[in-house]
Amino acid sequence: MSLAVQRRLRQGGQTLAEIARAIGISRQAVSQYAHGDSIPTLYTAARIAQYLGCTLDELAGFRRRSP
After folding, report:
1. Which CATH superfamily hosts domain 2-60?
2. Which tens digit of pLDDT belongs to each residue from 29-61?
3. Is the separation of the CB atoms in 34 and 3 below 8 Å?
4. For a tag on the chain, would you pick the N or C end, based on fewer CB atoms within 10 A?
5. Which pLDDT score, from 0 to 100, does residue 1 have?
6. Would you tell me the crossing angle of helices 42-52 and 16-23 to the nearest 10 degrees?
7. What letter would DSSP give residue 37?
8. Cα dihedral: 43, 24, 57, 59 (round 10)
9. What are the residue ranges of helices labelled H in 1-67?
10. In this structure, are residues 67 and 7 in contact, taking their beta carbons and an 8 Å threshold?
11. pTM value > 0.70
12. Is residue 48 within 8 Å of residue 40, measured between CB atoms?
């Protein structure tokens, strides 16, 4: 999840503090998720994904397989 969060942050230009404020968690928590030091709950991951405008799969770094 950490690489996907970092990639989304770069693409959208958001900061860790902006995400933290928007979803009501600490900047330190978002930093830990972004660096892979901690894993968010499903609820928190869903809120981060919603804020970043992506799916949970995209946030987790999953890619669709081609048929």
Report:
1. lambda repressor-like DNA-binding domains (1.10.260.40)
2. 999 998 889 999 999 999 999 998 889 998 888
3. no
4. C
5. 65
6. 120
7. S
8. -150
9. 2-12, 16-23, 27-34, 42-52, 56-60
10. no
11. yes
12. yes
* Encoded tokens for 49: 């994904």
Residue 28 token pair? 């330190």
The CA dihedral of 39, 62, 4, 13, to the nearest 10 degrees, is -130
The residue to which tokens 């405008």 are assigned:
53
Determine the distance from the C-alpha atom of residue 40 to the mean position of all C-alpha atoms in its chain, rounded to a whole number. 9
47 closest CA partner among 66, 26, 19, 67? 19
Domain extent listing, the chain: 2-60
H or E segment to which residue 48 belongs = helix 42-52
Residue 23's identity, in one-letter code, is I
Q: What is the DSSP letter of 38?
A: S
